[in-house]
């Protein structure tokens, strides 16, 4: 029973991370379609896997009893999604080392202590403050967020696969054996 509740919790986490991924990747797919260009594979693979995973997570969450009855199949499909997300994250691996945000400004100082040979010179500190400036590349940040959500979903689908196997293992099916006795009477007429 506890495994079922934890399973439902992780299904909700999957949906919470899949919905923003779908929105961000749909933005890119729509942009490429409007420009009449082919969507790159690294976007398309994660988008397709995310759509299928979101539908699967929603169906298994709403059909809890049938999910518990076929827990071994649910675990198998979840493991398949783990593999699909690993493949999708691998195709989007180029974004991993990208620097999407540039921060400039802050506090800078000039002066201080310097030494040359046997003399030590102390100069007055001059502290300059400039306001912070942040610029972010929208395309880069959205792809990096989708990539991170893909990694999170690899972990979440693996956890739900393990929990589904626990639900399958602890499922106590009631087996009713029915014995039927037939009476035969040999009546002679």
Reconstruct the topology from this structure.
Elements: H1 2-34, H2 41-62, H3 64-69, H4 71-91, E1 101-116, E2 119-136, H5 138-169
Antiparallel strand pairs: 1-2
Helix pairs in contact: 1-2, 1-5, 2-4, 4-5
In terms of structural class, how would the helical and strand content be classed?
A: alpha+beta
Low-confidence stretches: none
Note the gap between the termini.
61 Å
Number of helices: 5
- Which shape, going by the Cα principal axes? elongated
Give the ordered list of helices and strands: HHHHEEH
Beta-strand portion reads 15-25%
| Helix fraction by DSSP (H/I, runs of at least 4) | 55-70%
Question: How would you state the average pLDDT, rounded?
Answer: 82
How many strands, which pairing sense, and closed or not: the largest β-sheet? 2 strands, antiparallel
- Total number of strands: 2
- Across the major sheet, the strand order is 1-2
What does this entry show, briefly?
With 189 residues, the protein is an alpha+beta fold. 60% of the residues lie in helices and 18% in strands.
Describe the fold and architecture.
The chain has 5 helices and 2 strands; from the N terminus they run ααααββα. The termini are far apart. The protein is α+β, with helices and mostly antiparallel strands and 189 residues long. A hairpin with a 2-residue loop joins β1 (101-116) and β2 (119-136). 60% of the residues lie in helices and 18% in strands. The chain has helices at residues 2-34, 41-62, 64-69, 71-91, 138-169; strands at 101-116, 119-136. The chain is elongated, with a radius of gyration of 30 Å.
